[in-house]
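Q: A reviewer asked whether we had any structural model of the full assembly, not just the individual parts. We don't, so I'm hoping you can provide one. Inputs are below.
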Amino acid sequence: MMEENNNDLIGDGIGNFPGGTYRNVTVNGVGSIQGDVKCIDFKCSGLARINGNLKAESVTTDGMGRVNGDVECDKLCVGGKLDISKDLRADYVELNGMVKVDGNLDAENFVSCGSFSIGGLLNAETIDIGMQWMCQAKEIGGKDINVHMDRAKAKIGILGKPVRLTSDCIEGDNICLEYTYAKVVRGNNIKIGPGCRIELAEYTGKFEKADNAEVKESKKNLL
Amino acid sequence: MMDEDRRDIKILGDSTVSGGFFKDLHITGDVTMNGSVDCISLKILGDCAVNDSLKTKAGTITGDLAVRNDLIAQSLKIRGDLSIGRNAVITDVQFLGDVRIDGDLSSEQIDIKGDLEVKGNCNSEIFKSKGDLKIDGLLNADEINIELYGNSKIREIGGDKISVRHGSKSLFKKLATSVFNGNHIGNLTTDTVEGDEIYLEYTTAKVVRGNDVITGPGCRIELLEYKNKFSQSDGAIVKENKKIV
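A: Here is a predicted structure for the entire assembly that you could use as a starting point for your response.
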């Protein structure tokens, strides 16, 4: 239970601040916070380094945030870059920039048209990924998983690497994939669209595969 | 290289860029640049390591930047730490973070909030700093405005208007200083300060030479030479002072 705290923490210049419970935290300059931070709104348009966990109602970053700990919030909007060394737990995640989570990302709704790299499991009720940049998660789990590439916006990448979502295992109820490389895709209804390379697809309901999608092995499970 | 031949690059994600000429280089992610990079506008959100030199007209970097060789820019705003292996030539620069330059720092306008370490010399028209300074060579600027928080050491200081003051104790400055050192106030150690109008606080110097000189609290000066006016506050110790022609 967050204690009532009316103090805002505003970092415009460069500073080291102690962790604690604040009302709103805004970092426009370079702010290093030592310890856990609890607040209502956390906004970063500069460079924020938190050596501890961050717990807030809303977290917004257009700048760069580095959290050496967990992040727990209701709403997360990343327009800039956010690095999290442990886990991320949020109700709603909107990603236009880049997020790196070494642990797991657990959300109700995950919407991305940016880039993400998740060391553990990306788990959400609904996952909506608009492929424009490289996306990677060790495992993906959810109810409705939709990965689509907006061909008009697709960036082939000057670096020669095609833009893809890569994951070891994608598991859900209704899965719709495009431009995804995965070892295993498991679900009720699976639709494998263009640009995919899947080793094994296991489904209980419907299975569709686009002509130019590669699925090494597909099998229907009766369950 | 004609500007039309330069390409724009926008990257979202960790990347490795080979050297080259670019127009707008916008990267959100950690990036390694293998080779010299020359661009018109540079925007980086993330950490950047350049294995050679970096040249840009305008740049904004939020994150840490490490350049192995030279950094050349007309205008640069850095939020984060910066390390440069050789020289930095930046016309207008705003540093918010800790900066280390192994060579010289040449500029017209320097504004730094954070710690600055320059192994060579630092030349500018305007030099404004809030934080700890360590300059192994000479700090030379028309206008020098230093706010001390911790200890600073500059071999020699030369300029027209020189002001060295104790930093204001606002909550959002380095709390560590007051936490560990009680009421310890930073101190500047230098061999020589030479200028027209000089105001010093908490400065330990062998020689101070100027037209109008004011030594404020915390000063320890061995020899002070002035052409016009000299005033010394109670908390200042000046061993020898003389009016010169």
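A: Points you may want to mention in the reply: The radius of gyration of chain B is 20 Å. The interface with chain A takes residues 7, 9-17, 28-29, 45-46, 62-63, 79-80, 96-97, 113-114, 130-131, 172-176 of chain B (CB under 8 Å).
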